TrEMBL record:
Protein family per UniProt: Belongs to the uracil-DNA glycosylase (UDG) superfamily. Type 5 (UDGb) family.
Organism: Streptomyces montanisoli
Identification of the protein by name: Type-5 uracil-DNA glycosylase
Organism classification: Bacteria, Bacillati, Actinomycetota, Actinomycetes, Kitasatosporales
GO biological process, one term: base-excision repair
Domain of life per record: Bacteria
C-alpha cells in the first residue's frame, strides 16, 4: 500500500507557490506536460484547510476493520492509463477508502461495485480493489474526481470544488487526444465537470444539460478536439446500491454504452 513516504518529491512543490494557498492548484496544474507529473503534483496540494484537517483526522480514527494500516491521507490522483478513451468521474475520495489506500475507488464498497462491473466488461484486470499495490490495471479507462481530498459527510463546499477544479481541467486537457467518452457518477460530479470541460476546451450546450441516469450528451469540437460523449449514471454509493436505486445491471449498461462509444469493448 502506498504511504506518505512513497510520494514523488522529485520536484519541489514550492516552485508553484505555497501548497496551502488557494492559488496553488492552478499554478501547479497549468504547466504540467504529462499525466504522471500532474498526479505527482496533486499529492502535494493543501489548498483547502477544512479538507486537509478532515483527511488527517480520518487517518487517525483507527476503525477496527483497518486497525494498524497506514493511511495515504493526501489528495488522491487519477488512476488509469494516460491514453484512456473513457474517463470515469466520481465525487471525492472516501474517508476510509481512497483516503486510506491512495487510489481512486479502492478500499470501500462503492469501489467494489464499480471495479466488479468494469471487470465483467473486460476493462479491469480484477474485480476486487484492495490496495494500491494489488496489481489492478485498467484497459482504456481512467478514473478521476472533481475534489481530490475526502470531505466531511461526503459533501465538499462549493469553494473547495472550485479551488480543486484546475486539477481536473488539466487532466482533461492532457487526455484530450484520446478521450472519447466520460461516465459521470452522480449529480455533483456532473455539475462540477461542466466548467472543467469548458476550461479544457470543449463546447458546452446552452442551457447546460441536466444530470440523469442514462443521460447522454455530445459536446462539440473546438481547438482540434474530437467530440466527446458524456454519460450520466447514479453514483455507486452504498445508499444507492443498498436501496436498489442503482443495480449492478444498471451500472454495467451505462459503462458498456460508454465503452462501446469509446471503442474499447473487448
Amino acid at each position: 500500500m502506498r504511504s506518505r513516504d512513497d510520494l514523488d518529491d522529485s520536484e519541489d512543490p514550492g516552485a508553484f507557490g505555497d501548497p496551502g494557498d488557494p492559488a496553488f492548484p492552478r499554478a501547479a496544474a497549468a504547466t504540467e506536460p504529462s499525466l504522471a507529473g500532474l498526479d505527482a503534483r496533486v499529492t502535494h496540494c493543501a489548498a483547502c484547510p477544512r479538507l486537509v484537517a478532515w483527511r488527517e483526522e480520518k487517518a487517525h480514527d483507527d476503525p477496527p476493520a483497518y486497525r494498524g494500516q497506514r493511511y495515504w491521507a493526501r489528495p488522491v490522483p487519477g488512476f488509469g492509463p494516460a491514453d484512456a478513451s473513457l474517463l470515469i468521474v466520481g465525487l471525492a475520495p472516501a474517508a476510509h477508502g481512497a483516503n486510506r489506500t491512495g487510489r481512486m475507488f479502492t478500499g470501500d464498497r462503492s469501489g467494489d461495485v464499480l471495479f466488479a462491473a468494469l471487470h465483467a466488461l473486460g476493462l479491469a484486470s480484477r474485480p476486487d480493489p484492495v490496495a494500491a499495490d494489488d496489481g489492478m490495471t485498467l484497459r482504456g479507462v481512467r478514473m478521476s474526481s472533481p475534489v481530490r481530498c475526502a470531505p466531511p459527510a461526503n459533501r465538499p463546499a462549493p469553494a473547495e470544488r472550485d479551488t480543486c477544479r484546475p486539477w481536473l481541467a488539466r487532466e482533461l486537457q492532457l487526455l484530450a487526444p484520446t478521450l472519447r467518452t466520460v461516465v459521470v457518477l452522480g449529480a455533483f460530479g456532473w455539475q462540477a465537470l461542466m466548467p472543467a470541460l469548458a476550461e479544457a476546451g470543449w463546447v458546452l450546450p446552452r442551457p447546460r444539460p441536466a444530470f440523469g441516469h442514462g443521460a447522454r450528451v455530445t459536446l462539440g469540437e473546438r481547438d482540434g478536439r474530437r467530440t466527446l460523449d458524456l454519460f450520466g449514471c447514479y453514483h455507486v454509493s452504498q445508499r444507492n446500491v443498498f436501496t436498489g436505486r442503482l443495480t449492478p445491471l444498471m451500472l454495467r449498461e451505462v459503462l458498456a454504452g460508454a465503452a462501446d462509444a469509446a471503442g474499447i469493448l473487448p
